[in-house]
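A favour between colleagues. Tell me how you read the following sequence-structure pair.

===
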Amino acid sequence: MCDNPFVASRDAVTKALQDARNGRITAALASLRTLQRLHPRDMEVLSVLGLLLTQSGQLDQAVHHLKTAVTINPALPGPHSNLANALINAGKFKEAEFHYQAATEADPTYARAFMGLLIARTFLNDSKGALNAAEQALALKPDWPELSPNYARALAAADRPADAVEHLEAAVRRHPTLAPLRSSLLMALNYLERPAADIAAAHRDYAACVTAAADPPPSDRSPERPLRIGILSGDLTTHSVAFFADAIFRHPPADWHLTAFSTSGARAGDSAAAEFRRMAHSWCDAATLSDAALDAAIRAAHIDIIIDLGAHTSGGRLTALDRKPAPIIATTIGYPNTTGHPHIDLRIVDSTTDPPDSDRLCTERIVRIDPCFLCYRPPTNAPAPALPPADAPITFGSFNLLSKISPTTLTLWRDTLAAVPHSRLLLKSKSFADPTAQSNFLARARAAGIDTTRIDIIGFTD
């Protein structure tokens, strides 16, 4: 028995963190809540409690406890930064920016708060401010792999995708085995007009990040039992991927047992997340799990085929597949390219997305479901299509990320507008709420020969 209450408290916090990483989040939170009642002004207890509440989606409670920590000692940078992290997850980006700023004022050498400012300002469509915060963070920590993906996202949001890739390539050269960093680079490469063979080679290089030998569990070939399918995704929420994944959950074959491994934190009031949870036969909240614990959870569920829906996207967890926790691993829907992961067996596509001669570019075996492997369910509140007035001009539209609008796309739009007199082009992207991004894009459009007076631009709308 420990007679020192401070040491006992530290030991209990350490155990709570270990419990959370191993999937025992309920026990971890119960322990921390007890500690918080015993030590209501203990900053470490409040911080870790807030962290785990954030990861488990209990954002209002997380913000409450972290605000308490700020109130106890507003001069410390850490509590402001921790509170801001929870506010980011709650979608309160302006308030998060305020507390990150307060952390940098409390300690101008606190690089992590400058990275927080970068993230918050990117969400606030202030790429100029975000890039300024990134430069301040880099001045404090010039070689910071964790910063690079966030810096690259701000560059892409400012309509500078080539600069984003250049920064990530330099970071990967310095840290070639860091999987999250390389994943960010591979995701960004999809938006550049580089030869397909070069992009494929960059994906094959992802194998350098996978140092674990495959250790798949044995296959149970009993013919009478259900086939155990696992879905690994961070997008089983109100997200574009969810509209394509819906059919898998809504109409599974009768002999399937479907287990969802959700790597995103729960969001109160997210009707899509609640519906996915209802449709799945089993559900695993994997947001707080370490890679080893997620590997163990997949094995414990005796999954026959684990289907990854994220790959190198921000919600992906490829690193949890490094030891091959299921006999067969497939990937589909969420990522538009080969993964380069040596332990992923199959990639499910069709002949339009991946023509027959593209097999050589993939590290997985290609499985084509023709004519289309995607099945889209529109939002239930989507308005019915309606034609414009007969005398209205023809309007072409693209609702997409700015980084997807390539030079070739601009040339095609220029030619289309020229071929249809008086026609217009309607563009919608959340990045267009950013004056810097809009200005950079319009300059690109004019350079491509487009009359920008024929372009209508809108930002994000619900």
